[in-house]
Amino acid sequence: MKSVQIQLTTKCNQKCIMCRKYTWPHKEISIDLLLKKLEEYKEATFTFSGGDPLDYTELSKLNEYLKKNNVVYQVFTNLTYEMNEERKEFLDNAKWIQVSLDGYDRETYYDIRRQNGFDDLILNQSMFENIKFNCVISSENYKSLSKIAKLGYNINKKVRFFPVHTHENLMIGKKIEESVKEQIEHLKKYNKEIYNNTNLSNFFEQKNIPKKCYVKKHHRLIDEYGHEYPCCRAINDNGYDIHQKYKVENLDGIDDENVLYDFCKGCDRYVKFNKEWGKYENKEELFL
Q1: Burial 113-140 (b: 16+ CB within 10 A, else e)
Q2: Closest by alpha carbon to 222, among 239, 234, 212, 214?
Q3: Do both 54 and 136 map to the same domain?
Q4: Angle ∠(232,237,240) on CA atoms, nearest 5
Q5: CA–CA distance from 286 to each of 8, 38, 187 (Å)?
Q6: Are residues 16 and 94 in the same domain?
């Protein structure tokens, strides 16, 4: 296994419009089960997500294991939490910190994430060098694309944009798509350095779903209950897969790249890996 993502907890301090997890009962993976999974897949790189992993109550024990075993990992977080010793250590030792942004100031940030965390994010990001910003573009914030890109550039952090996939009423329709394309072309022409600090050159390529998937053979996503899935598109983040029908044990053809499933048609995260798998398959450190 090359890459494993573990959802540490459903708990989060925000209520984003594109996420329903804040409505769920609070649940976190037990530290014993977590350490068992880390040991089982010890040759892999790890991604810790949630909810928000900074809300995980056993960070001290997790930090101890990660440091002792030289685990290579990254963290997905909104970075708006108070930086106590455990959280700071967890982030300090991460290869990458993937930070949710979605707005360029207090007002636009609140419109998407529905909590007053923008100032905390800006303060906390200054403590770490290894940050990448991630912005989900939707019908609610597509006009802010250029300003979010500029914010990232001004504080020397890369910005990656992704199309929303969780709610039909937030998705990018044809009219919005044209506006996004215009903003991208404007940045490309007049703000080349800001443009190059993003993934906007291939933003729309993320919708070109490959006909093969190599990722499912080399990647696992483990949820708060310990259920294992082939990828993040198979899980029940929005309540669709309430019976865990897409768990690895329920799927045939995991090792066959030619076998695709119902959830594959909505993929936008693994497109680049499948499109150019030859570039990635022999990498020692690979976050899928």
Answers
A1: bebebbebbbebbeebeebbbbbbbbbb
A2: 234
A3: no
A4: 110
A5: 20, 16, 30
A6: yes
How many angstroms separate the CA atoms of 173 and 11, rounded? Answer: 31
CA distance 79 to 22: 16
Q: Are 151 and 99 in contact (CB under 8 A)?
A: no
Domain that holds residue 49: 1-100+214-288
The tokens for 145 are: 């694309």
Listed residues 207, 228, 252: the one ending a domain: 207
Number of domains in the chain: 2
3-state secondary structure of 286: coil
Q: Cα separation of 186 and 27, whole Å? A: 44
Shared-domain flag, residues 96 and 107: no
The helix (run of H) or strand (run of E) holding residue 278 is: helix 277-280
223 and 274 assigned to the same domain: yes
Quick one: pLDDT at residue 206? 63
CA 20, distance to chain mean position in Å, is: 15
Q: Where a domain ends, among 159, 182, 207?
A: 207
Alpha helices in 141-276 (DSSP H): 145-154, 174-190, 192-196, 215-218, 271-275
Does residue 133 share a domain with residue 274?
Answer: no
Q: Are residues 49 and 71 in the same domain?
A: yes
Q: What is the pLDDT of residues 1-19, one digit of tens each?
A: 999 999 999 999 999 988 8
Best CA proximity match to 121, nearest among 77, 154, 83, 79: 79
Which of the residues in the chain have pLDDT under 70?
168, 206-208, 236-243
CA geometry: angle 276, 279, 282, nearest 5 deg: 130
